[in-house]
Backbone:
């Protein structure tokens, strides 16, 4: 049988048979790569538990994860779809500006920080989701909040300031 | 004696040839990508995502921020059919 991935194919075969009716139907996420990358940290902020469940299920079922983890996968899809729907409802222009910038820049997040800061502000104000990069060292600014992006083609203009979400004062 | 300008003509021709091929290649990559800058250093993840973009939108570099996929997206993933090596 197939021990390696097929690469020398000359034809492709598309099988339009849908899944059986015993499996609940879920609508797939329709966003393509640039919007997904742009919304990725917000999907992570809202859907962390479902994503962790799915990854744990796949790790515990090596080889048959695609069949055993359908339920967790449906939850992941629904959660990600809800994040994209909410971003579309409330922050559409900033979202579109950011992913258009990403699409023009080889999908490199460090080229598009000003647009990203505007999107972060809008999403935090409307949806209360914050972008955090895990495991950043404590003594330096997190990567996405730095004014100086060393690998970017053009420097960040001085009037564009990073958006830092204020933590509510816990009394 | 100053350098006569005829001696520099070959260099001008060489530079023009390099320029034409460079501009042509860059223009081809621009149009092939639908007017966007071309993507470089594409790894397997990027190739997989670009393939998914083509399944979603029909164009290799097409992007959409629709939350719900168009009908038929779930079943249009291609199987690669190789001929047997025997």
Residues:
């Amino acid at each position: 049988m197939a021990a390696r991935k097929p690469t020398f194919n000359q034809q492709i075969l598309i099988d339009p048979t849908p899944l059986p009716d015993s499996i609940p139907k879920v609508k797939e996420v329709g966003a393509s790569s640039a919007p997904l990358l742009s919304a990725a940290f917000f999907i992570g902020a809202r859907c962390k538990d479902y994503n962790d469940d799915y990854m744990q299920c796949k790790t515990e079922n090596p080889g048959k994860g695609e069949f055993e983890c359908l339920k967790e996968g449906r939850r992941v899809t629904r959660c990600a779809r809800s994040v994209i729907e909410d971003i579309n409802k409330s922050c559409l222009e900033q979202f579109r500006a950011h992913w258009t910038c990403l699409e023009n820049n080889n999908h490199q997040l460090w080229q598009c920080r000003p647009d990203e800061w505007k999107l972060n502000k809008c999403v935090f104000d409307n949806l209360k989701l914050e972008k955090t990069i895990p495991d950043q060292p404590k003594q330096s600014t997190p990567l996405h909040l730095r004014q100086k992006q060393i690998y970017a083609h053009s420097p960040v203009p001085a009037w564009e300031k990073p958006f830092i979400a204020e933590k509510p004062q816990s009394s | 004696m100053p350098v006569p300008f005829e001696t520099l003509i070959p260099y001008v021709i060489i530079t023009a040839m390099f320029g034409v091929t460079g501009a042509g290649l860059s223009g081809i990559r621009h149009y092939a990508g639908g007017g966007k800058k071309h993507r470089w250093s594409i790894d397997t993840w990027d190739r997989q995502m670009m393939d998914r973009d083509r399944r979603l939108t029909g164009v290799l570099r097409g992007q959409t921020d629709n939350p719900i996929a168009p009908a038929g997206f779930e079943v249009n993933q291609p199987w690669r059919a190789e001929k047997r090596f025997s």
